[in-house]
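Attaching the record inline, Q. Sequence:
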Amino acid sequence: MDQARLIIIGGFAGAGKTTMARRLAKEFNLTFFCSDDFSEAIIKTTGKSFHESAMLGVDIYWFLIAKHLSSGISVLLDTNMHHSYSWGKLDEVKRKFPEVQTLPIILEGPLETHKQRIEERKVAEPEHLNLGGEKFEDVVFKYDLIQKLDRPDIIKIDATGSKEETYKRIEALLK
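Structure, as predicted:
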């Protein structure tokens, strides 16, 4: 990759964002930011709740993304992108760095698929269960917001198949 890129892997919980992003970062040697890591660091440092820390985390990772892009370094971001604030931050980056290729990729699937994957994650990876709410029903509105996203720059990918199928779809976009 000669030109700096900002690749965003977004979607609802259980879409496979983190799995895909980690693998892509490794294969393409990309700087990798996960929004959950920023919130977790703020929570551990300040003792604030997830809801108190989330927006500060968003501001910090977008600040760091801009710093990297200004140096010509590509960045891969793993985040849900369900909030208009994040889309506003992306638009700021696009205005500030028009030469940077941005690829906002949204992984999609039926709500039941997401719910099933979240239930499986509770057992396999309980430390990676940050939904942003106490239970699944508290965050379904995020799924609805993601489904209603209507922007010409969004690349939607069906993530209901195997991890390998989803990865190959994303990989094809990056090559």
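The longest helix spans residues 50-70. Residues 16 and 69 are 25 Å apart (CA to CA).

More tomorrow.
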